[in-house]
Amino acid sequence: MLEYEVRPLGAWLERVTNPRRGSHVFKASWVDTLDLLGRELEYLGARRVVLQVDVLAGDIRRDGMLRANARVGFPGVRVAFESKYGPLTYATDAHESHYGWATLSGWQANVRAVALGLEALRAVDRYGVTRRGEQYRGWAAIAMAPAGLTVDEAAELLARWAEPDSDEKRQAAERAIRRREAGAVVTAYKRAARRAHPDAGGDVDTFDRLTKARDLLEAR
Q1: Cis peptide, bond prior to residue 75, ω within 30 of zero
Q2: What pLDDT shows up at residue 195?
Q3: Distances (CA, A) of 112 to 19, 67, 115, 132, 160
Q4: The pTM is what?
Q5: Secondary element (H or E) of residue 33
Q6: What is the C-alpha separation between 199 and 208, in angstroms, rounded?
Q7: What is the Cα–Cα distance from 56 to 3, expressed in whole angstroms?
Q8: What's the rounded Cα separation, in Å, for the pair 59 and 79?
Q9: CA distance 68 to 60
């Protein structure tokens, strides 16, 4: 069984996928998904495996697992770990929850997508194309490179943290920010900051990203 710990996702640094596929494209269970991910990580000599999910710190148990009643907001995930090729991070938000016959939630489907991606990368070695894991180097660079925010990303980030419980309200907030409606940035920032502040169970990195997003938008 894969040994991992869950941590809050924090700021989403990658481009947001729109539209997303439904999680129903995968018929596998969560147990099957963890088995697949564990197998691929074993090939990479992985250790210190972290799944970053869009939850609050209080939604995570002391053993590093999600609480049964945890509410996951944004479906994007990051899978980060130490490997024989150095630190690697893979992230995707390509899938979202599909209610009905789907066995995986949105974030779980994205974990499976990462596992399948790792399986595909390993397949390159079967044909002798690589010798030293060259196909993994790009993700090592992504994991360590600092990322700034574009205006669009800043608007999306503030809106998502300001209105995490309602897609309709989140979209309305994002539209208001993009249109530069009076007070839209300040209002969104205040709401987002209350959730992300370290004293409220958030983390310093996310709070810092939200503040930079506000500063960027107010400087437009």
Answers
A1: no
A2: 86
A3: 18, 20, 5, 25, 24
A4: 0.66
A5: helix 30-43
A6: 14
A7: 21
A8: 18
A9: 9
DSSP 128: T
E strand segments, the chain: 5-8, 21-22, 47-53, 77-83, 86-92, 95-96
CB of 107 within 8 A of CB of 75?
A: yes
Rounded to a whole number of angstroms, the CA Rg of the chain reads 18
137-159 pLDDT tens trace: 767 655 544 456 788 888 998 99
Beta strand pairing call for 77-83 and 86-92: antiparallel
Helices (H), ranges, 44-183: 106-123, 137-144, 151-162, 167-178
User: Tokens for 204?
Assistant: 């310093």
Number of Cβ atoms within 10 Å of the Cβ of 68: 7
- Is residue 36 within a helix (H) or strand (E), and if so which, with residue range? helix 30-43
Say if residues 10 and 208 touch (Cβ distance below 8 Å).
Answer: no
**What is d(CA 193, CA 197) in angstroms, rounded to the nearest whole number?**
5
Domain ranges for the chain: 5-144, 151-218
Q: Is the pLDDT of residue 187 over 90?
A: yes
